[in-house]
Amino acid sequence: MPDNPTPGNHGANSYDVAVLGGGSFGTAMAKVLGENGHVVHFWMRDEAQAEEIRRTRINRRYMPAVTLQGDIQPTTDLAEAVRKAEIVLVAIPSKAFRSVIREHSSEFRDGQIVVSLTKGIEEHGFKLMSEILLEELPRCRSGVLSGPNLAGEIVNRELTATVIAAKDPDVRRTVQELLGCEYFRVYANVDIYGVELAGALKNIYAIVAGLASALNMGENAKAMLITRGLAEMSRFAVSLGANPMTFMGLAGVGDLIATCTSSKSRNFRVGYAIGKGQKLEEAVQELGQVAEGIYTLKLVREKSEAIGIYMPLVRGLYEILYESASINAVINSLMMAVQNSDVEFILPRTITQ
Ligand SMILES: NC(=O)C1=CN([C@@H]2O[C@H](COP(=O)(O)OP(=O)(O)OC[C@H]3O[C@@H](n4cnc5c(N)ncnc54)[C@H](OP(=O)(O)O)[C@@H]3O)[C@@H](O)[C@H]2O)C=CC1
Ligand SMILES: O=C(CO)COP(=O)(O)O
After folding, report:
1. Which numbered atom of ligand 2 lies nearest the CA of 269?
2. What is the pTM of this model?
3. Which residues form the Glycerol-3-phosphate dehydrogenase NAD-dependent N-terminal domain (predicted)?
């Protein structure tokens, strides 16, 4: 989309919104909100970064080519950002999500809307971010936002759609009104767990797709990986209570396509680097940003084995990343596994492991 100096708001209310997390996605959402005419209390932990954004309107570390427009107020005072906000969006990596929220939980008000933008799972207890919000902020109204939302495209005003999942219809409507504009479209869902799990799980398959790309696999192979990834992630999520139809939507197949076909995805890039022979630690260090999939992979492998869910791609990727298995040996064992059914919701699988 060409750059357009006029705000993208539908002309509705202006809100005070806190965006917690000054990385790529926090910046992308702050930009949409600023252009939509909202007041953005943009929290990050680094005062030098906040001061630089105040002065230059540029988040040099995470989005060096993007100038922020509108009333965006960078701050390192989380309590004040939350106190001023009607709605809080949280874009903090899963490893730090609970600690940041817990430390400031007393600042949140009863009924305040708090939405997680984070696509990950907490290490201890396999908790999703919506569960952390419920535990830490039981009197707030929560939701999750997930979908094919590469931050680098959103900041360029490229056409994008996302999903807001919340039980409370007012939360869904408010977030649609808040973020929706001519380049950003917000669809609603009530299956919070499904939307959130889809966003976290697809990162694993983005790593697999990056690996396949590094190995110059053909289009048939890429399609097989994406589709079997979808089968595997929906099998797992349904066993935990998600609705399988959510995986047909933007948060499921939509995000899988975006991240499994593009080197703009950091998870894809980690997979690509490993496929080219780099060690996992080197690949992560070189990336310099969060790739949630490498942590999610460990947790999902452990959980799937504990509850007996067949996830051959998860198992194979885990062996490559964490057990130094040969990529070719893993591919061979996946291809030579027992033949099975295509869509198990139509023809049940007969083999369970
Ligand atoms: N980027 C994208 O395209 C999308 C990302 N997401 C999700 O959004 C979440 C955030 O990702 P993203 O913004 O891309 O990540 P980045 O790696 O770009 O940025 C991470 C941000 O989190 C901050 N951070 C890290 N640890 C802490 C902590 N302990 N306390 C406070 N802040 C901390 C970093 O601060 P500092 O710089 O000071 O280290 C930085 O601002 C992830 O779960 C990701 O999956 C969702 C959709 C799209
Ligand atoms: O979730 C994303 C796009 O929808 C971003 O993916 P990465 O974290 O792999 O960059």
Report:
1. 9
2. 0.95
3. 17-170
